[in-house]
Amino acid sequence: MKVLSVVGARPNYVKLAAIYDAFSKLFDHIVVDTGQHYDYEMNKIFYEQLGIPEPHYFLDVGSGSHGYQVGEIIKRAEEVVIREKPNIVVVYGDTNSALGGALAAVKAGFRVVHVEAGLRSFDMSMPEEVNRRVIDHVSSLLFTPTKTGLFNLRNEHVPGVAYLVGDVHVYILRKWVSIVEEKSNVLGRLGLRSHEYILVTLHRAENVNNSNRLTRLLELIGRISQYHKVVFPIHPRTKKNISQLKLDHLISKSDNIVMTQPLGYVDFLKILNHSGMVLTDSGGVQREAYLLRKPVVVLRKNTEWVELIEYNQALLCDPDDLNEVKILRWKPGNYVEGLLGDELAPWRIAETIRLFISGSP
């Protein structure tokens, strides 16, 4: 049985690492990297640190508009899919790589699996929301991490078969959280003391491509840095926009802000695990913070990980209405176990795909 995975952006690599062992035991597993993220810190470092063999194909799509990226991914991925003739094509999450890979496969007559299906923010202005909706409706197998995700898929009457399996991040995080303590010296390198800093990540287009919103978020970081040390790994898109809009002064004057280039998974997980609080617009970081029992503030108008908000495990904070006092005083409720499932999601996914390909019920 041959399974072909399409990845290409930082969130995809973590999911691929989570599922790689389970796939390798059952399938001839071909990995295609679109090159949507191509900087070393956003691409190759994940293969090196997470122990994933380098991809069989690298499509070198690079940056560009959403339409350009998806179009190039479809063209280039289609050639690979037709050459390899897999039994099924697997895509991960809601990136342009996932959308392009899914469309390339289904248009060429191949069945698609969507890992992390059913998530909805119900905000069609978000590129990720458009991607995940389209992927779900062209997929034959859909694996959702949450009960809400399963409800969404049934409510939309997707033509594929949906399974509630849990979040693959649970496995990879629990596997690596103890390993990073030995492998990473990032705290010493950055002069940080455990639990005495706030971690901030910003990369969503609706936040960092909007000059007014980006200004407000940087001003928030500046105000928070008056009271706490802030660690801010800067995404390439965010860094570019800060420079082009000449907003560097909003964060460069504070000695309490530690700005770094993007971090590999090992260093980032250690930074996250030793933080006192997390402010993020990332879907992956908000649930990793929950799994590590960190107070996490989601800097968005909405989130697809609704259980974290409903159970008071995360605070949703509108970027157009920021209040650092409210943020700093917020405390999560008592920890609720199991909102994202357990560590067995990768094996559930692999076995279900095996049965599906073999035609078993």
Percent range of helical residues: 40-55%
Report the top-level CATH class of the largest domain: Alpha Beta
Q: Using the 3D structure, state the CATH architecture of the largest domain.
A: 3-Layer(aba) Sandwich
Per DSSP, the total helix count is 18
CATH fold annotation of the largest domain: Rossmann fold
The major sheet is characterized as: 7 strands, parallel
Structure class: alpha/beta
- Overall number of structural domains: 2
CATH superfamily of the largest domain: Glycogen Phosphorylase B
Return Rg in Å: 20 Å
* Low-confidence segments: none
* Strand order of the biggest β-sheet: 3-2-1-4-5-6-7
Number of strands: 13
Strand content: 5-15%
**For the terminal residues, how far apart are their CA atoms?**
17 Å
Average pLDDT taken over every residue: 94
Shape: globular
What layout of secondary structure does this protein have?
Layout: E1 2-7, H1 10-26, E2 28-33, H2 44-50, E3 57-58, H3 66-84, E4 88-92, H4 96-107, E5 112-115, H5 127-138, E6 141-144, H6 147-155, E7 161-164, H7 168-176, H8 179-183, H9 186-190, E8 197-201, H10 205-208, H11 211-224, E9 229-233, H12 236-244, H13 249-252, E10 257-260, H14 265-273, E11 277-280, H15 283-291, E12 296-298, H16 306-310, E13 315-316, H17 324-329, H18 345-358
Parallel strand pairs: 1-2, 1-4, 2-3, 4-5, 5-6, 6-7, 8-9, 8-11, 9-10, 11-12, 12-13
Helix pairs in contact: 1-7, 1-18, 3-4, 4-5
